[in-house]
Amino acid sequence: MKFDRLLSIMLLLQHRDLIQARELAERLEVSPRTIYRDVEALSAAGVPVYAERGKHGGIGLLAGFRTDVTGLTTDEARALFVLASQGAHSALGLDHAHGTALRKVMADLPAPHRPAAELTSRRILVDPDRWLAGPRPEADLETLRAAVFTDRRLRIRYRHSDQATLRTYTVDPYGLVAKAGTWYLVADHRGRPRLFRTDRLSGVSVMPAEARRRQGVELEQVWKELRRQVEDRSEGVRIAVRVRRERLDMVTRIAGAYFAGPPEPLEDEPEWMSVHLTYPVLEAIRHLLQFGASVEVTGPPEARAELLRASAEIAEMYGVA
């Protein structure tokens, strides 16, 4: 709708001195000609909007002009107040700022939308942490936040999951990402994207030098690339297993991230389900031993041999002949 687009243009212009019409058109999915018509409409309505010609020109608002949020719809107001229960602001030390921001938004909302916003904050709770996640080391998010907001390089000491010793890196951060209750630092190391769990950082120091990010690359783009690498199982070890039907939900909850496809019933054995899984390395299939006799690896032979070796090691440890 045109009204929503006009409000969006004002909100975008409030955060930048000048924005080219082409960029506004791309963000709002209209033509540059439509943007110019919208600018004329805003000007006719008394909004102090102007256009500058030339290579470095664009569309802008006179300094000091602000709009309010009375253009929010009911659903948009609800969406803002769902954020109150997500908890990321607490980890970043923004609890107080978050609370005052919501109070300001609430005060500026049209009266008909306030009950819906208040009800949403009481009826919707988003808990990002996994069940039984257990205690985690404290992460120095305050220092990391300072670095990413001031565009500074970082020197970090990091412990990889498969190593006991710490390694030192000098990195150029793009930002922080919270996923499933875990915070990650997304940064370039020697020009290549890397992912660091903040709870494995042992030392963090902000350097005076500016971050040397790749030109035109933003956090969301780097995160998508890294996430794709983590989730890509095309080169892993693929195994076939059968799972007792009554234990399938539990196995799916714990090992579902490794499923290569949906479980399928076994025609001749109705009490079992067939599942294919992909693990990064052969030794990782020892993860399945926690399910005892509820999961049997049926192939390939080297996978069965790996679990047999693991079982023999456990038996020897406990003195079983």
From TrEMBL:
InterPro entries: CBASS_pafABC_assoc_protein, DeoR_HTH, HTH_11, PafC-like, WCX_dom, WH-like_DNA-bd_sf, WH_DNA-bd_sf, WYL_dom. The keyword Transcription applies. Keywords: DNA-binding, Transcription, Transcription regulation. Coiled coil: none annotated. It comes from the Bacteria. Signal peptide: none annotated. Residues 2-61 form the HTH deoR-type domain. GO terms for molecular function: DNA binding; DNA-binding transcription factor activity. PANTHER family: PROTEIN PAFC (PTHR34580:SF1), PTHR34580. This is Putative DNA-binding transcriptional regulator YafY. It comes from Nonomuraea dietziae.
